[in-house]
Amino acid sequence: xxxxxxxxxxxxxxxxxxxxxxxxxxxxxxxxxxxxxxxxxxxxxxxxxxxxxxxxxxxxxxxxxxxxxxxxxxxxxxxxxxxxxxxxxxxxxxxxxxxxxxxxxxxxxxxxxxxxxxxxxxxxxxxxxxxxxxxxxxxxxxxxxxxxxxxxxxxxxxxxxxxxxxxxxxxxxxxxxxxxxxxxxxxxxxxxxxxxxxxxxxxxxxxxxxxxxxxxxxxxxxxxxxxxxxxxxxxxxxxxxxxxxxxxxxxxxxxxxxxxxxxxxxxxxxxxxxxxxxxxxxxxxxxxxxxxxxxxxxxxxxxxxxxxxxxxxxxxxxxxxxxxxxxxxxxxxxxxxxxxxxxxxxxxxxxxxxxxxxxxxxxxxxxxxxxxxxxxxxxxxxxxxxxx
Length: 388
Fold this sequence. Notes:
Strand content: 25-35%
Structural class: alpha+beta
């Protein structure tokens, strides 16, 4: 098996492999997926010739494996360091996934980056990472959850598990039950006084200006610039599986902007948090603002991934947790690994993969050509299908 850097002409093969591995589609072509892979892996604003994405080729030249690489400029204290996030990692199901996957992952971890990161690793990828002398950031592998409207939330969870359940019969009773629950658990909800600070929609310009300052308190952190942040926010807004992206800023009347949060969702469903960012002294108030804004806008629950800087605030607000997927770090420098494992690092969120459409969104499958009777045309069609 040959592993080399990704080229533009590889993208149709990578897209076909993605559809087989992650969407269980054995045939079909998606131009929208090909375009998206090109955008995030070949046209990334921080693209670096020493940090290419990689494909694995069989002896026959077929693409049988892929690892996407997302460059991430970081600072460790005052020192700039080159980081890379391990994006989509996939191996053709016909191969021995463990051996081939380990070879592809090793090629990524042996790259030119000073620090390697992953924030959405499966158990198999986690085990391979640890065998390759990587480390896990345990808190960042947790997913948080806070129910705001218990009756609606329970109905939504049943609907996801049993789509044909006749839950429409219960809908007239959901709102009264939720109002009763809100009165019963008013103290537990800890909704902040709206007069103490303002929660407002945030423009792209505001977020680009504020986000770098919110992460500045961590030893290991992204070194955001305007171009990269604009690109990330625009890519995040393209994701639609959980609903439209909501961008909010939290403003104190005395101190001005103290934090922001971004989440996806539709009223009546869960708010899926992409990121929460704040000055350390204001994180609890920003989490309060997230809960207040989600409840005010009709969401049934608040869910997302834990970050080191958010854990204490979430914990004090009664959030529940479960292990989701692994957050991983690797570096030849023990001081960088120690910062990532101990919590003195800003990992995940916009600095991870949660903004990417690859993990949740569906991609349109191109229509196949209509069948024809000509034997020559049928033969050409078969060749075209194989090429796809």
